[in-house]
Amino acid sequence: MIKKLAVVMCMFVVLTVAAATAGCSAKQALRSAAQIAKKTYYDTVPDSSIKVGDIDVSYKMFGDGAPLVMITGYSTTKDTWSPEFLQALASKYKVIVFDNRGMGKTTAGTKPFTIDQFGDDTAGLIDALGFGKANVLGWSIGGDIALSVVVNHPDKVIKLVSYAGDCGGKQKIPSPKYKDILKSLQDVKAPAKTVLAALYPGWFMEANPDYAAQFPWPRELSKPENIEKQNQAYETWAGVYDKLPSISRPVLVSGGDLDVSTPWANAPILYKRIPGARVAEFKGAGHGLQYMYPYDYAYAITNFLSSN
Are the C-beta atoms of residues 145 and 78 closer than 8 Å to each other? Predict the structure, then answer.
C-alpha cells in the first residue's frame, strides 16, 4: 500500500536501453575504460580482510576517486558482481566490494543476523577503511541494507544508490518464490537456466544463448545455515517505510521494469517517499541489470554520483 505525500520532490530519469544509446560519448568513455585490460580489476586485486566489530570482513578495493562501497545481494558473494560493471565504475571511483556477514570469506561473528546489523557492519567497514563517509550502492537485499545504513548512519553516506531494493516490512511488494532460485546460486548442481531466470527476462536468454557462460558464477561458497539466517533477517525486517521521508542524502532508485525478484512496483514506494529521489528505470531489464547493460547502468550511476 502506497501513501501519497502532499509534496513529493522526485526527478524521473527513465532510461530505455537500446543500441542507439551506446553511441553516447560519455558512455563510450566508460566502455573503453572498462575494456582496456582483458583481466578486470577484480581478478588482479588480492583479497584483503579487516576487523569490523565482531567479524573479519573480506573485501577488495580498486580504482581511484571517491569511495563507492557496494553491498551485494541475497546469498551472493563479492565475486558475483559483473566484472564489466565493476570495471566501468572503477574508472571513476574507488570501488569496494565485500562479503556480507557470514557470506563467502567474511566470518559470521557472534551478533544476530539482522538487516540493521548488516547496515551497522557496512558503516563499520567505511570507518575501518578510514573513509569517514562513502557513496553506497546496494543490490537486492543489499539495497535494503543500504537503506538501513542511510537511515541509521546518515553521516557515513555521501550518496546512495538503491538497485532493486525495497522498503521492507508489510509495505514491500514481495516475490518469495524467486528467493529460492537466487539461493540456488550457491548450488553447483542447479541448472543454469533455472538459476538465472531470477536475473534475466526470457527474451534476453533467447537473444543471448551464451548468457550462462558469460555469467560470473561465484567462486566463493557460503554455509547453508548462514544463508538461511540471512534469509530470516530479510523476512523479519520491519523495514524503513516510515523513515523514508527523513532521508537527507541524495538517493538514486534504480532497476529493471521486468525484475521478477524485486518487482519494479517497489520502486515508487521508495522514490515517492524519499525527498528529492532520482529514478533510473531500465526498460526490458531484470534483476540482473548489471549483467545485461553494465556500461549503460554504470553511466547512470556515475552521472548521479557526480551531479550536484
Answer: no
Q: Which three cell numbers stand for residue 51?
A: 576487523
Cα–Cα distances in Å, from 305 out to 10, 123, 210, 296? 16, 19, 32, 14
Query: Exposure pattern of 237-267 as b/e (b: 16+ CB <10 Å)?
Result: bebbbebbeebebbbbbbbbbbbbbbbbebb
Question: Yes or no: is domain 10-306 CATH 3.40.50.10470?
Answer: no
Q: Note whether 299 and 26 are within 8 A (CB).
A: yes
Question: 96 with 59: CB under 8 angstroms?
Answer: yes
Task: Name the grid cell of 105.
Answer: 570469506
Angle at 142 between CA 136 and CA 143, to 5 degrees: 70
Scanning the structure block, which residue is given the C-alpha cell 546496494?
138
To the nearest 10 degrees (0 to 180), the angle between helices 115-128 and 224-235 is 110
161-202: pLDDT as tens digits: 999 999 999 999 987 555 555 555 555 455 677 788 889 999
CA dist., res. 17 & res. 27, Å (int): 12
H helices of 47-189, in order, are: 83-90, 115-128, 141-152, 177-183
pTM of the model: 0.86
83 is written with which cell numbers?
Answer: 566484472
